[in-house]
């Protein structure tokens, strides 16, 4: 047999071996969704515990002394948010429940200060371990957004790797799970992450493969494209580039979990007659009824608008394998059933270790659009598993 055929066979065997590894469906739950009104209100009891292998409660924060800060003690403790979330395991004992520390609003400075001091970092590790055990979670998800950025220092990359290594030493003997959510941007990954170290010590890595484009830019762009488009000035802003980069830098493909957004990014068009990809914009689209944040609409809000309003134009971008829609001067780059199926198939074909959704409450969990409860999550699962 010639050498090229041997190498090809070895590569196929390696992929087949990776494909037999654990297949994860990781689901984030934004705990503040409990305060939304009407059909937007979402509580732990709205979670279908059989659709996810791992469910992650977002978020808790840090204190300067290395203790864990409850961002919303009323919801988490007084309303038994932690307990109600963990009680999902009573319905499905196979479900793993985790808690995430950090998030966008938490920033980077607190993590940077703690992890830059070896003694304080050791205290932080012990406090995180005790927190996870005391509240009955199966593990911890690290959402430091992002090391060496947003107020962090140049030593963050090494210090984050040290934090992960020390947490693994503490968590692993107790059978606790350790994961992290990481930026999809290639520049951010190079600055923030010691990829071989993270891959060696994390149980899985949640790639936040979304927010590639948004209303901070002056032209329309897709939130979570699979591939580059002809109008991209940066051809690295897509899922394929992110996954390839992490693999090239030494990540274990069986630990990479592909993130899929349950929301779209919105823009206000400069002209309602110029509404293609790369069209000039003047800012964010108006806030949604439930999400209440300019520039973002949950999938349930998008499908409701499309169902109840006339005048929508919807296009499926076959190059990037995601749809976009417009009405008057509103433009939305988002995901639908077809695009999440493509992403699930991509994760399966590339033997990745899982798929992840951010976040459960943004899907059509009430079936208001008549596609079925959790229509996107179910389509993603069917394509990946």
From TrEMBL:
<keyword id="KW-0378">Hydrolase</keyword>
<dbReference type="InterPro" id="IPR050314">
    <property type="entry name" value="Glycosyl_Hydrlase_18"/>
</dbReference>
<dbReference type="Pfam" id="PF00704">
    <property type="entry name" value="Glyco_hydro_18"/>
</dbReference>
<keyword id="KW-1015">Disulfide bond</keyword>
<dbReference type="InterPro" id="IPR011583">
    <property type="entry name" value="Chitinase_II/V-like_cat"/>
</dbReference>
<keyword id="KW-0147">Chitin-binding</keyword>
<dbReference type="InterPro" id="IPR001223">
    <property type="entry name" value="Glyco_hydro18_cat"/>
</dbReference>
<keyword id="KW-0119">Carbohydrate metabolism</keyword>
<keyword id="KW-0624">Polysaccharide degradation</keyword>
<keyword id="KW-0732">Signal</keyword>
<feature type="domain" description="GH18">
    <location>
        <begin position="23"/>
        <end position="385"/>
    </location>
</feature>
<dbReference type="GO" id="GO:0000272">
    <property type="term" value="P:polysaccharide catabolic process"/>
</dbReference>
<keyword id="KW-0146">Chitin degradation</keyword>
<dbReference type="GO" id="GO:0006032">
    <property type="term" value="P:chitin catabolic process"/>
</dbReference>
<dbReference type="GO" id="GO:0008843">
    <property type="term" value="F:endochitinase activity"/>
</dbReference>
<dbReference type="GO" id="GO:0005576">
    <property type="term" value="C:extracellular region"/>
</dbReference>
<comment type="similarity">
    <text>Belongs to the glycosyl hydrolase 18 family. Chitinase class II subfamily.</text>
</comment>
<dbReference type="InterPro" id="IPR001579">
    <property type="entry name" value="Glyco_hydro_18_chit_AS"/>
</dbReference>
<dbReference type="InterPro" id="IPR017853">
    <property type="entry name" value="GH"/>
</dbReference>
<dbReference type="GO" id="GO:0008061">
    <property type="term" value="F:chitin binding"/>
</dbReference>
<dbReference type="InterPro" id="IPR029070">
    <property type="entry name" value="Chitinase_insertion_sf"/>
</dbReference>
<feature type="signal peptide">
    <location>
        <begin position="1"/>
        <end position="21"/>
    </location>
</feature>
<keyword id="KW-0326">Glycosidase</keyword>
<protein>
    <recommendedName>
        <fullName>chitinase</fullName>
        <ecNumber>3.2.1.14</ecNumber>
    </recommendedName>
</protein>
């Amino acid at each position: 047999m010639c050498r090229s055929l041997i190498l090809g066979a070895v590569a196929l065997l390696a992929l087949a071996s990776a494909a037999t590894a654990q297949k994860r469906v990781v689901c984030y739950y934004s705990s503040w969704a409990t305060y939304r009104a009407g059909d937007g209100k979402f509580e732990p009891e709205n979670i279908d515990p059989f659709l996810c292998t791992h469910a992650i409660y977002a978020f808790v924060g840090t204190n300067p002394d290395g203790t864990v800060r409850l961002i919303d003690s009323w919801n988490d403790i007084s309303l038994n948010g932690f307990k109600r979330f963990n009680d999902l395991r009573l319905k499905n004992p196979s479900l793993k429940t985790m808690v995430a520390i950090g998030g966008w609003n938490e920033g980077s400075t607190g993590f940077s200060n703690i992890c830059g001091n070896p003694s304080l970092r050791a205290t932080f590790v012990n406090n995180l371990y005790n927190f996870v055990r005391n509240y009955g979670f199966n593990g911890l998800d690290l959402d430091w957004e992002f090391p060496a950025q947003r107020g962090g220092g140049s030593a963050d990359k090494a210090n984050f790797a040290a934090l992960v290594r020390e947490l693994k030493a503490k968590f692993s003997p107790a059978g606790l799970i350790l994961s992290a959510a990481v930026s999809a941007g290639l520049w951010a990954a190079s600055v923030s992450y010691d990829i071989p170290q993270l891959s060696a010590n994390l149980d899985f890595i949640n790639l936040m493969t979304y927010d590639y484009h948004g209303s901070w830019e002056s032209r329309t762009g897709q939130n979570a494209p699979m591939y580059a488009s002809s109008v991209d000035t940066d051809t690295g802003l897509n899922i394929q580039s992110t996954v390839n980069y992490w693999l090239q830098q030494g990540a274990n493909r069986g630990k990479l979990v592909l993130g899929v957004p349950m929301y779209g990014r919105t823009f206000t068009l400069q002209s309602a007659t110029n509404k293609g990809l790369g069209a000039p914009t003047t800012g964010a689209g108006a806030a949604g009824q439930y999400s209440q944040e300019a520039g973002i609409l949950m999938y349930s809000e998008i499908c409701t608008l499309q169902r109840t309003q006339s005048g929508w134009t919807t296009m499926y971008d076959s190059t990037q394998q995601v749809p976009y829609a417009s009405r008057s001067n509103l433009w939305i780059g988002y995901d639908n059933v077809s695009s999440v199926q493509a992403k699930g198939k991509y994760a399966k074909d590339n033997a990745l270790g899982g798929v992840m959704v951010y976040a459960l409450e943004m899907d059509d969990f009430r079936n208001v659009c008549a596609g079925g409860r959790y229509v996107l999550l179910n389509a993603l699962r069917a394509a990946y598993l």
